[in-house]
Specification:
By secondary structure, the protein is α/β, with parallel strands linked by helices. It has twelve helices and eleven strands.
């Protein structure tokens, strides 16, 4: 091989290296989870289709801290993005928290209808706020899971030591409306706190409870969706703009498909995890009709309180309620 050809190859490799763009992405999701498996597969496809110009490096299992810490690191450029809960982005798009208002949804069919009406608006709002995203993936319904006593009523909930994520204003406002004093803790402190009795009740999706081993410390699951949440992959718009328009199109296509797949898979996994919890002996607690009515009334009070305190706007809450009403009345167009 002559020297000119070697020089040309060397220059080509140097150019490719100089043009390579790596997105550093952090998440609480553990490595090996379905979420991470699909994101890694998407990242590999992006790298292949951009001929190595775009790559992803993932920091999993909370090694970069909670969602708030991840957003701070994105702000200073230490990270370029995070796979985080939608509610964590409330500082930038407040109304994305509307999905998590207490006791709004009863079924997945309701969720699908409402999200079909509202997801696109939230995705655009995030882009306008500086975060490129690829849609939303279902986190699932959060159920109350308790260690020492069944929780069928709000009165029973008030007797528990209830965990909420630290710096979670929405959960704090909801429990304040229920007249429950919560125990704020980081995610990593929940399992040892269940073991030692610092807390005895958590609200979690079934797959979350299994992945984080919380299910080993609880005996009861209240068969009532307390709230619903979604996650997203948010990448700093300025960092994303460093990719060429052609590579940006590839990233959007691949990661958009990945998030649609995760959205569908998470529902299947949550249903499977719910059934697995029951098979393992966790007792299902079914509130009575009177207790369900009380939960609904108190949930509405909590929503009003959140609107007044600015957690979500009345416009967003009314919009969600209108879509739910339309679905429940059969007006699905």
């Amino acid at each position: 091989m002559n020297r000119k050809l070697l020089a040309a190859i060397a220059l080509s490799l140097l150019a490719t290296s100089a043009q390579a763009l790596t997105f550093k992405i952090a998440t609480l999701s553990p490595d090996g989870s379905g979420w991470m498996t699909k994101m890694r597969a998407g990242a590999n496809e992006v790298k292949t289709r951009t001929e190595g110009r775009v790559d992803f490096k993932f920091y999993t299992g909370g090694t970069m801290g909670n969602d708030k810490a991840v957003l701070n690191k994105i702000r200073i450029g230490q990270l370029q993005g995070g796979a985080i809960t939608g509610g964590s982005l409330a500082e930038h798009v407040r109304d994305i928290q509307v999905y998590s208002l207490p006791l709004k949804f009863k079924t997945f069919d309701e969720v699908d209808f409402v999200r079909g009406k509202m997801d696109a608006g939230f995705a655009k709002a995030l882009e306008d706020a500086g975060f490129v995203n690829f849609g939303f993936a279902e986190g699932g319904f959060a159920y109350a899971m308790s260690k020492n006593a069944p929780v069928s009523s709000i009165a029973a909930l008030r007797r528990q030591r209830v965990w909420i994520p630290d710096n979670d204003r929405q959960s704090e406002e909801a429990l304040k409306s229920f007249r429950v004093t919560p125990v704020p803790l980081s995610l990593g402190d929940v399992l040892p706190s269940l073991q030692t009795g610092i807390i005895d009740t958590v609200a979690s999706s079934p797959i979350g409870a299994v992945a984080l081993q919380w299910h080993t410390q609880v005996k009861y699951l209240t068969d009532l969706p307390m709230s619903y949440f979604v996650g997203t992959l948010a990448i700093d718009r300025k960092a994303f703009a460093k990719a060429s328009p052609e590579d940006q199109a590839v990233i959007r296509e691949v990661m958009g498909r990945v998030f649609r797949d995760i959205n569908a898979q998470n529902r299947k996994d949550n249903v499977a995890a719910y059934n697995a919890l029951i098979k393992q002996g966790i007792q299902v607690v079914k509130p009575s009709e009177a207790e369900l009515a009380e939960w609904t009334r108190e949930g509405n009070v909590a929503t009003d309180s959140m609107e007044k305190s600015g957690v979500v706007t009345r416009q967003a809450a009314d919009q969600l309620d209108a879509h739910l009403s339309a679905f429940r009345n059969g007006k699905k167009s």
